[in-house]
Write a structure and sequence with these properties.
alpha+beta; five-stranded mixed β-sheet; about 10% strand
């Protein structure tokens, strides 16, 4: 049984327990009526009435606990519970004394049990059953002449019951329709909320992503990098590499911006293929990119960026039938938990300029001696 079914099954059991309070009150009424001489039968008959009710409720309880109720179209077993309650009430009324007129209003209370489950047609059907049961009881009492009340009094009681159950049928069906309307509005609201969350997620993605390469942008990188640095344990460091595509302005001028865009996208793909899932690459602006390696030392960082540099240098771009190869330069540095990210990025930038100044297509590690 999945969690959703189990949740509704729990709610059905709670409603069943609530119904047992009504039965407990009924059993108390039977006992009180017998004690004051208003139960027109023996104590054994009164006890049998109680035992019959307990037995039927035990069967229903077993169906709920075993999940057998889930095989029915209405797992709440609303109609069977209402019919059983009406039959037991009619059984009680058959042996009631002068206070019978007070008990007939229990029929509407029983009908209230189906206010959220039964359609108007079903509700009217159960209301008709209550009238038929009480009418049949009046008929048999009249035939057997066991009632001291006049037939007109019985008819007036039946008429009052018909008025109340008829009004209750329309009132409860209105409540059910109102509930259904609210449920539909709730579903529509949930749909709108889901759509809104999806749109917000898309907007957030657009705000964090470079539209050309699909990589994270500068704003997202700085925020995420700072978060990761804050979470570092003592002694751990992350590696950062500032990467610049060599002679990119010349590529744009000679081959056009469309080719330049293809080169940028090509680098993004090479970087993604050569990084681990937890690592991050972002476009810092123009032809400049930044890479962050989790839990790295200078050797691991240098090896990774060299792999990216080598793969990118071997990537061929087609332009007007010609083959174009591009290179990159990179400046490397490490950042610890208590260190300033912006300062370390500036140091990596110094190493990048040194790589540019010493021939390009190379990686340089920041060293204090060159600062």
């Amino acid at each position: 049984m999945d969690s959703n079914v189990a949740k509704f099954q729990t709610l059905r059991l709670q409603r069943f327990y609530l119904a047992q309070l009504n039965y407990a009150i009924t059993y108390a009424v039977i006992g009180a009526a017998w004690l004051v001489g208003q139960y027109n039968a023996s104590g054994a008959m009164a006890a049998s009435h109680v035992m019959l009710g307990v037995t039927l409720q035990a069967i229903l309880f077993g169906m709920f606990k075993s999940g057998l109720n889930l095989r029915f179209r209405d797992p709440s077993l609303t109609s069977p519970q209402i019919v059983i309650a009406m039959l037991l009430l009619t059984y009680l009324l058959a042996f009631s004394g002068e206070f019978r007129g007070s008990l007939i209003m229990v029929y509407p209370l029983i009908l209230m049990f189906g206010v959220f489950q039964l359609s108007r047609r079903a509700f009217l059907g159960h209301a008709s059953l209550a009238l038929i049961l009480y009418g049949a009881l009046i008929f048999f009492n009249t035939l057997q002449q066991t009632s001291t009340k006049a037939l007109s009094v019985h008819f007036l009681e039946w008429f009052m019951l018909a008025c109340f159950t008829g009004w209750l049928s329309f009132f409860c069906s209105y409540i059910r329709e109102l509930r259904a309307r609210l449920q539909r509005r709730h579903n529509v609201l949930q749909t709108h909320q889901t759509t809104l969350r999806d749109m917000m997620g898309q907007l957030q993605s657009l705000a964090d992503t470079d539209s050309l390469t699909g990589l994270a942008n500068r704003r997202y990188f700085l925020s995420e990098a700072q978060r990761r640095i804050t979470l570092l344990t003592p002694g751990r460091k992350v590696g950062i590499a500032l990467i610049d595509l060599d002679n990119f302005k010349k590529i744009n001028d000679v081959y056009g911006h469309a080719t330049g865009d293809e080169v940028l996208k090509g680098f993004a793909e090479v970087a993604r293929q050569n990084l681990r899932d937890g690592d991050m690459v972002a476009r810092f602006g123009g032809e400049e990119f930044v890479v962050m390696l989790n839990n790295a030392d200078l050797a691991a960082l240098h090896q990774c960026i060299e792999r990216i540099r080598s793969c990118f240098a071997q990537t061929c771009f087609k332009c007007a039938g010609k083959e174009l190869y591009c290179t990159l330069s990179a400046g490397l540095n490490l950042v610890g938990q208590e260190e300033n990210l912006e300062k370390r990025l500036n140091q990596a930038d110094e190493a990048l300029y040194r790589a540019k100044g010493t021939g390009r297509n190379r990686c340089e590690v920041y060293q204090e001696a060159y600062a």
